[in-house]
Specification:
About 60% of the residues lie in helices and about 0% in strands. By secondary structure, it is mainly α. It folds into 2 domains: about 35 residues; about 60 residues, no CATH class.
Length: about 110
């Protein structure tokens, strides 16, 4: 069989069978699937749970976009994630002082 015929026969095979026939591609496919799931979860969470996104027409008309309860519920896990490992930001004294405050990291626009 000539090389040209081998290439044309390979081109006729379905792309899924080419990718799935080689076991070396399994880690790549698993990584891409994991990245897709994480991106979808993160996008869905921000789209559905973020206090800044408003689907309700009545809520869109208000200038005051959030309450402290919504903001603290949305960012409740953020300080714990920031301290998973020591880094230059969480070792700074200003970060430690800010984290000692109640409702640290919650910034809500206040009414004038």
């Amino acid at each position: 069989m000539t090389p040209f015929r081998r290439l044309s026969a390979l081109a006729r095979r379905a792309s899924s069978s080419v990718w799935l026939s080689d076991p070396a591609t399994y880690p790549l496919l698993a990584t891409l699937a994991t990245a897709g799931v994480l991106a979808g979860f993160s996008g869905g969470r921000y789209l559905l749970c973020c206090p800044d996104i408003r689907f309700n027409k009545a809520k869109r008309k208000t200038l005051y976009f959030g309450s402290e309860a919504e903001a603290s519920a949305f960012s409740s896990h953020r300080p714990a994630l920031a301290r998973l490992s020591p880094n230059p930001i969480n070792q700074d004294d200003s970060f430690k002082r800010r984290e000692a405050l109640p409702d640290a990291g919650v910034r809500v626009m206040t009414r004038p």
